[in-house]
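CO-FOLDING WORKSHEET

Operator: S.A.
Ligand of interest: flavin mononucleotide
Run index: 190
Mode: holo prediction, single chain
Checklist:
[x] sequence pasted
[x] SMILES validated
[ ] output reviewed
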Amino acid sequence: MRIVGFSGSLRTGSYNTALLRAAQQFVPPSGVLEIASIAEIPLYNFDVENAAFPQAVSKLKDRIAAADGLLISTPEYNNSIPGVAKNVVDWLSRPPDDADRVFRGLPVAVMGTSPSRFGTVLSQNAWLSVLRTLETRPYFEGRLVIPNAGKVFDEHGAVADAKVLALLATFVAGFFEFARGQTRQGAAPG
Ligand SMILES: Cc1cc2nc3c(=O)[nH]c(=O)nc-3n(C[C@H](O)[C@H](O)[C@H](O)COP(=O)(O)O)c2cc1C
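OUTPUT RECEIVED:
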């Protein structure tokens, strides 16, 4: 099982990137969680798409199309999806006649953390309409909403809270199990 994950934050000290890295320790022995960088994804522009489709987007599309699932670690901005993160998925859905190859039937899990008391719950909800539009298979059997991020991670970005680690372990194991149970056209065998 090969899952591709990206963090919807560009900042070096991102809590959501730290959460995604921490998730790797709970991947089952037969699986892998590859972390994809979104740093090279440009701002979406139809003119750019028409003139020269960005290589960074093509590469990420191919990685996800060949994967068994996608894990999005999302921040929350103004009670919704940060533009940086939404921009990535908007690019990945282009051109429309290639969107099925990337997203249709794709198992997708969303998790997130923020310094507030609400821990990205509204951002995670906002992702649902996007995931439905793209005809993915969202993972609904678990939820990972981590509030008070400032107290959860240590200065190296490691999860310093045993309860959060346990929640993360359950979430990651559950998502891999869910993804294993799905059959995707276009995903590479193995
Ligand atoms: C423009 C902006 C809007 C924000 N809005 C929210 C919000 O609605 N809810 C929330 O919990 N945190 C909000 N925050 C705080 C972010 O959760 C915080 O910056 C967090 O560290 C971002 O995730 P990251 O650490 O992965 O970069 C906002 C931050 C910015 C810059």
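REVIEW:
The chain is about 40% helix and 15% strand.
The first strand starts at residue 2 and ends at 7.
[x] output reviewed
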